[in-house]
Amino acid sequence: MDAALVTSSIEDIEIQLLLEALYQHYHYDFRHYARASIKRRLLQARAQLGYGSISEIQAAVLRDSTLLPRLLDFLTVQVSEMFRDPSYFRALREKVIPHLHTYPSLKVWVAGCSNGEELYSLAILFHEEGLAKKTMFYATDINPTALKAAQAGVYSLDRIRLFTENHQASGGRSSLSDYYTANYGRAVFDKSLCSQVVFSDHSLVTDAAFAEMHLISCRNVLIYFDRELQDRAVGLFRDSLARRGFLGLGSKESLRFSSHADAFADFVREEKIYQRTGP
Ligand SMILES: C[S@@+](CC[C@H](N)C(=O)[O-])C[C@H]1O[C@@H](n2cnc3c(N)ncnc32)[C@H](O)[C@@H]1O
C-alpha cells in the first residue's frame, strides 16, 4: 500500500475527530469549512504549537480550554485592511447610500468583522455621508481575540499608509487622520466611531438570524465554507434583511450557486452587491 496515502488518510480521520470534538465540547463548528484549507491550517498549528499529531492537539484542547483561543487563531483567517478593495466602498457610497438616505433609521451588520477594519471603514463612510447618527452597527465574529481587537480599534501605524490610500480610492471625503490619534507607533481610532456599534460573538454556522438589517456586509468569509454552509449563511442573510435591504459579498464571492439566489437581485454586479427582492 502507498505509505503517503495511509499517512494522509490517518490525518484526515484525526482532523475529522478534532473538529467533532471542538463542536461537541465547545460548540465551535468547523465541520463544514473547506477541508483543504482547514487541513493546511491545522498542520501549521501542529508544527507551531509543537504537537506530534492532530490527535495530540485534540487531547490537549479538550482538557485545557486556554488552548482554544490559540487554536481558533489558526482555524480562522484574520487578514483584513481598512477600505479593502476600495471599489466596493465606492459602490456602496455612490449606489447604495442614496437608497439608505430614505430610511428614518438604519441597521448594518458586518458579519465576520475580524479585527474591525471593515467596521471602521463603514463607520467612517457612514459618517462622511451623513448617516452615522441614525445607524446602528452590529459587528460580529466567532474569534474572541479578533472581536476584542475590533472593539479596541488600535492598528499599527505601518498600516495607515495603505488604509489612507484605500480610503481616498473609495471616494473618501475627509482625511483618514481626522479619525485617529497617533500614539507610540499605533493609530488609535476615535471611540465615537463605535458609540453605536454592538460587538458580539455570532457564528454564521450555528447561530440565528438578526432582524431587519438594511445592509449586511460579509466579505472574505464564505470562501472558507463548503457549499452547504455557504447556503446556510446566505439563508441567514436573507432572513436577516429587510425587504429591499442590501447584501455585500465583495468581488471574491457570489450568490450564483446558492439555493437562495432567487431572493436577491444583482445591484452592483462587479462588487457582488445584491438587493433582497423575493420572499
Ligand atoms: C478573512 S477575515 C475577513 C475580514 C473582513 N470581513 C474583510 O473582508 O476584510 C474572515 C473572518 O471570518 C470570521 N469567521 C470565520 N468563521 C466564521 C463564522 N462561522 N461566523 C462568523 N465569522 C466567522 C473569522 O474569524 C475572520 O475574522
UniProtKB/TrEMBL annotation:
This is Chemotaxis protein CheR. Residues 3-255 form the CheR-type methyltransferase domain. It holds the Pfam family CheR. Gene3D superfamilies: Vaccinia Virus protein VP39 (3.40.50.150). PANTHER family: CHEMOTAXIS PROTEIN, CHEMOTAXIS PROTEIN METHYLTRANSFERASE.
